[in-house]
Design goal:
Number of domains: 1
Radius of gyration: 15 Å
CATH topology: Aminopeptidase
Shape: globular
Number of helices: 3
CATH architecture: 3-Layer(aba) Sandwich
Helix content: 10-25%
Order of helices and strands: EHEEEHEHEE
Oligomer: single chain
Structural class: alpha+beta
Strand content: 35-45%
Low-confidence stretches: none
Strand order of the largest sheet: 1-2-3-4-5-7-6
CATH class: Alpha Beta
Largest sheet: 7 strands, mixed
Number of strands: 7
Mean pLDDT: 89
Length: 147
């Protein structure tokens, strides 16, 4: 598997949009057309690709205040789930973000994914809430140690 950044107007980005649409949007009755592309705000797109250059997992990293990033739209292809690829993607994305000076991460985890993120060192923040009609949990992780 190869980890790399995804850029606009590339085959990798077309694969990313299709994966996110199939796994995250369509089950909710939503389309990618209703979602902003959000490249202008500095959002970085990361993917994990197999030996045939097929995207198996992706995550977006949107900048926040004070050196923070919000991770969004994390998806692993149905055929690749429970393979460790999601964990690998997250670890490599975190390392890339840490190298670029990011200090902390946050994300809105679907309730079914809370355990996955806890195993990666994320902590729950506050109570479970509804987002797009699905229970979610705000979670966070520090990438640098506070002194």
């Amino acid at each position: 598997m190869t980890f790399r950044k995804i850029f606009p107007e590339t085959n990798a980005y077309a694969q990313e949009r299709a994966l996110r649409d199939t796994l995250l949007r369509q089950p909710l009755g939503l389309t990618m057309d209703a979602e902003s592309v959000d490249w202008a705000d500095g959002t970085r797109h990361f993917g994990l690709f197999d030996e045939t250059d097929t995207l198996v997992a992706c995550v977006l990293a949107s900048p926040g205040p004070n050196g923070s990033v919000r991770l969004r739209q994390m998806a692993v292809s149905s055929a690749s789930q429970s393979s460790g690829f999601g964990r690998s993607l997250m670890q490599q994305a975190e390392a890339e973000l840490r190298r670029s000076g990011v200090k902390s991460l946050s994300l809105h985890a679907r309730d079914t994914a809370i355990g996955f993120y806890e195993k990666l060192g994320y902590s729950r923040v506050g109570d479970i809430y509804l987002e797009l009609g699905i229970p979610h949990q705000l979670m966070g992780k520090e990438l640098v140690r506070k002194e």
